[in-house]
Amino acid sequence: MKAVRWQVAPSAILLFALLYFFDRTGVVSALLPAALVHELGHVAALSLCGAPIRQVQLNLSGVELAYAGMLRRDKALWCLSAGPAAGLLFSLAACRLGTPFWRLSGAVSFCLSIFNLLPVLPLDGGRILCELTGERFTAGVSQAAAAAMLLAGGALLVLRRTPFPLAMGLWLYACQLPAAPQRGI
Amino acid sequence: MKKRGILLSTAVLTALTAFKLLFPDLTAAVQESASQALGVEAGYMETLNAIGTRLSSAQSAPASRDAAAAPQPSPTPVPAQPKPLEYRMEEGSIRGEHATALPPAAAPEPPSTPEPEDRPSPTPEPAPHVLDAVAAFLESQADFLDSCALPENVDYDYTEFPFDYVVPVSGYQSSGFGYRMHPILNAVRFHYGTDIAANSGEDILAFSDGTVIFAGQSSGYGNYITIDHGDGWTSSYAHCSKLLVTNGQKVQAGEQIALVGATGQVTGPHLHFELRHNGIFLNPEYYING
Do the interacting molecules here have an ipTM over 0.85? Predict the structure, then answer.
């Protein structure tokens, strides 16, 4: 069995450090189990579909899983949906535990799952749309949705003084920009 | 090069985490300064708490009552808790208006000895003073309700609070629950809580036993606390000058949790007190004016 290769971007660690330090509400800590369950959902589905994980990459775009082999469309859809599905199940279970931390983690997991189902690349919803409709259509929808989120985030910052939606909009919009050409091969 | 970057960022993460755990007060001061400098707030916490409450209450068994109580109506969907700005307390709560002296914050009543039951006893009727309070309140709201619909997340009826409770602060009621003519805006506005005028720095006590599910600030509420008492009951205490509890802390009825202040959008120091059951705002005066 091949070992899984891990790649962690220093910028991701730094961003997490700053978010954790300045977080007054405990939501960053609550995000950790939610994110873990989400990714484990993907990993479990990929393993069941015979596509073992080869590389886990942690960067500013989030967590990216590289797997061995190719997946048929139905299996790919199942694997892409597994993350949000696991997150939703976790949110129900965590809220049932009753303690404030797990209830917060459950709520964060719920939001994370719903957010990931948005039809925007590189989110799971964007990838599901790509599987169903193709890259070109998905790219158009992604850009439009990301732009809408950016505008909504800006409006919320002005109206409600909450920066989080704008930050998410900026991140999503940045993800739509063409990737820098790779050096080498 | 990349290894060095990972090591450096990990060192930063370790240092910041250690600082936060070892010096929580200093960290809180830094966080507060950063929040004020940026002019932002954690407005998402109300939404997250609402989601957590909805998901947990969607699975919990109905609140236990005496078995011989009248058949419960089929559960109706509980509307989501509004964002803070939607139920911001009425501005211009002026001390001296509707001065109704409240009983001083009392020690919690000793729990009553449960009666031996051979058969279930019927649901007790509210005390006469509560029925009078409900009738008086409904009468005061009658004119408004001719032209204004009752907000979806509000109930004017009395619901028995199943635990021991205390008056959260000594003072007098300066602005009551429900619709009223705003004294500054000269427009009808809905007030989702009760304002209790008190001197700045007065002790604010926990209404009943529970767990703090939010201790922070917002632009409207200022420094505020929300406590989960169980069975879907929560209470909120806003405009505090100082919070003395933290998220997740367990408190007892009558325990000091904050100090009266004038933070947020107010015109004078007072406690804005809200009471909710399953996300529905109830009139706190039914409970604290007894």
Answer: no
